[in-house]
Amino acid sequence: MKTSEPFVFSSGVIGYPIVFVLLIWIVFWVEIRFGFDFNYLGVRPRTLEGLRGVILSPFIHSDIKHLFNNSIPLFVLSMALFYFYRGIAWQILLFGILLAGLFTWGIGRPSNHIGASGVIYLLASFLFFKGIISSYYRLIALSFIVVFLYGGMLWFVVPVDPGISWEGHLSGLLVGLAFAFIYKQRIVKPPKYEWEKPDYNQDDDPFMRHFDDNGNFVESLPETESLEDDTEEESPATGYRYFYKKSEEK
């Protein structure tokens, strides 16, 4: 059953992120268990075979540290996406992976770019910028939480470490920012109070009746109910009878 509530917790809020994270762990387990090396399936910039990495690279990681560092933020941010933006969550995730991968393919160094960090930057960027421009206090609070938890990631969108794909990070950041404006109208609207509605009438507001035109408080008298008849009907008199019975006990 569909609900009109903007934020509803469902099994998918946790279920989808768990499946996503579980898949990348399964891929890594297959590599370790059977001795495979899937690094060649990453994004190889400006090569035809490197295009397959646009889809496959988020599921491939170099070592357990790389995998662990990506798993927690990927789970937290994707869970926030499915809870606060459930109507567009799949579009953001799928199109974001595609566009961020293509952007990395276009600007990246000639190397194999692997890992889900580009997706993490995509989600963090979208959640932050969308919350800021939404003017909705819950989404703005989410933006501050994202900055508090993952604001330090901003340093890695520049080439500070040759072993890190800063191109993938930058690509995810820019795609998330673009989606924040592209999906500007596809978000929940801030609730309107009674006085913000177009049909609001101040004279019908019980609270505003306590103030005069100058803003002074006026104690209103309680309203009395009118009677249909000017005279009240007299209720019939009630009589009581007492009987005295002498006790036979002596």
From TrEMBL:
Residues 211-239 are annotated as: Disordered. GO terms for molecular function: serine-type endopeptidase activity. Residues 225-235 have a biased composition (Acidic residues). Residues 53-184 form the Peptidase S54 rhomboid domain. The chain crosses the membrane at residues 7-30, 67-85, 92-108, 114-132, 139-158, 164-183. Its main location: membrane. GO terms for cellular component: membrane. It is found in: Membrane. Keywords: Membrane, Transmembrane, Transmembrane helix. It is a multi-pass membrane protein. This is Rhomboid family protein. It comes from Gillisia limnaea (strain DSM 15749 / LMG 21470 / R-8282).
